[in-house]
């Protein structure tokens, strides 16, 4: 419902291509999960993402499922660059963004699954967490630079801050469980 209202109020014409890029991305995850023999148990729509709870996937299948969304976005970005340039641009941005090695983004999931296939779980999760925090630190520095020195607006810093806060919340939740 919220998406329909946004699309109706959108004067720039950006909402529909963004929503389409997001829908294609998430659909690719679901299709790959099902193709790998997994089951989609729950879909949860949150502020800036859709979380898919699946079962029946091993590390390799989860890795393939995590890669499916960004890869489809990159393919759509290349395929539609002439016919639908705004959809192509948003697809490319979404695909690249989701490949960042930050948990819980797809790139972070790929890194974690690749590590879990080769290392004990505690070591793999520790390395994944370090890489995620390091990537967030770099993104925050880039965000500060772009926001204050290049006058790019608040979106680079806001995006980096959002990822960092999500990562901190997930790390705190994980620490509380252990």
Report what the structure shows.
- This protein has 178 residues and is mostly helical.
- The chain folds into 2 domains: 1-99, no CATH class; 102-178, no CATH class.
- It contains 7 helices and 2 strands; from the N terminus they run ααββααααα.
- The chain has a two-stranded antiparallel sheet with strand order 1-2.
- β1 (39-45) and β2 (50-55) form a beta hairpin.
- α2 (15-35) crosses α4 (85-98).
- The relative contact order is 0.09.
- The mean pLDDT is 84.
Quick recap of the structure?
This protein is mainly alpha-helical and 178 residues long. It has 2 domains: 1-99, no CATH class; 102-178, no CATH class. 71% of the residues lie in helices and 7% in strands.
Keywords:
single chain, 178 residues, mainly alpha, 2 domains, 71% helix, globular
How far is the first residue's CA from the last residue's CA? Answer: 38 Å
Sketch the major β-sheet.
2 strands, antiparallel
Count of the separate structural domains: 2
Number of helices: 7
Provide the gyration radius in Å.
17 Å
Helix share bin: over 70%
Within the largest sheet, what's the order of strands? 1-2
How many β strands by DSSP? Answer: 2
What fraction of the residues are assigned to beta strands by DSSP?
Answer: 5-15%
Question: What is the arithmetic mean of pLDDT?
Answer: 84
- H/E series: HHEEHHHHH
The parts where pLDDT drops under 50 for at least 5 residues are none
Structural class: mainly alpha
**Based on the structure, what is the oligomeric state of the protein chains?**
single chain
- What is the 3D shape? globular
């Amino acid at each position: 419902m919220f998406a329909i209202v946004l699309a109706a109020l959108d004067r720039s014409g950006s909402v529909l291509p963004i929503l389409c890029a997001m829908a294609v991305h998430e659909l690719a995850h679901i299709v790959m999960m099902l193709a790998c023999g997994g089951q989609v148990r729950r879909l949860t729509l949150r502020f800036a993402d859709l979380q898919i709870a699946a079962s029946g996937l091993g590390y390799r299948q989860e890795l393939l499922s995590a890669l499916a969304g960004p890869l489809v976005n990159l393919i759509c970005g290349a395929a539609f660059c002439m016919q639908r340039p705004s959809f192509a641009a948003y697809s490319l941005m979404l695909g690249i963004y989701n490949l960042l090695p930050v948990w819980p983004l797809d790139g972070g999931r790929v890194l974690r699954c690749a590590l879990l296939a080769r290392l004990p779980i505690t070591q793999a999760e520790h390395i994944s967490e370090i890489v995620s925090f390091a990537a967030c630190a770099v993104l925050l520095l880039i965000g500060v630079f772009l926001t204050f020195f290049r006058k790019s607006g608040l979106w680079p810093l806001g995006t980096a801050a959002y990822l960092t806060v999500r990562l901190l919340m997930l790390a705190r939740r994980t620490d509380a469980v252990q």
